[in-house]
Design goal:
The chain is mainly alpha-helical. It has one domain. 78% of the residues lie in helices and 0% in strands. The chain is globular and about 60 Å long.
Amino acid sequence: MFSLVILYSTLLACSAFIGVVAWRYDLYDREPPAPIAAAILLGAVLMFLAGRAQGVLIDLTVDHALSMVSDTTWAAFAGITEEIAKLTTVVLILVLFRRHFNDPMDGLVYGAFAGLGAAIEESVFHMGFKSTTMILPGQEPVRLAGHLVMGGIGGFGLGMLAIRHPRWWAWTLGSLAGAIVLHFLWDVVAFAAAERARDTGKTSWTFIASGVGLMFVGMVGFRGLVARGSRLSKRHFSSAT
């Protein structure tokens, strides 16, 4: 029991640190605690439902489309369902906290926290409650950061609604597509690495380099959207005053 307390305390501390880093990107109108907490909670709940949806899709594929059974198909299911779940979280925040959704950065910020909630749920699923180790596995901080980045990218487009951008829908679809593709590629590499590790007992440097490369692409994309969103926010709030 004590080891679980230490393990999950470390997970929460790591989540809090990554969340604060993301929150600080919101320079001009930082979001209050209530909608951020709601985004994390809804992100976790919808991630759970996305997992159930993946289970249904996998069963249907095995039963009716056996030729499609592959890690690539499972990666596609994961990328699509999980990124749609994060974007749905942003939509719910927009509806529930409309007064606070007033900044071009809000889509990215709430998407990032939806991703953080999704990552926490996934970490709990993988670690369970029977672990005897007190050391947080090395992949968990990567999971937290990865889901946060992909959630932020996928949610960015909805922030265009705050400034009544005429092509907000195109931004939304484009952002979601980018997050899905990044997530899909990440899972393809992760599944291939896991299979290689099962077969040979070791992971190829090719997979490690591919994973690092995808994380770098995601971080560059995320920071690029932060920069663009910050410029739009500055212009938006300057014109409002």
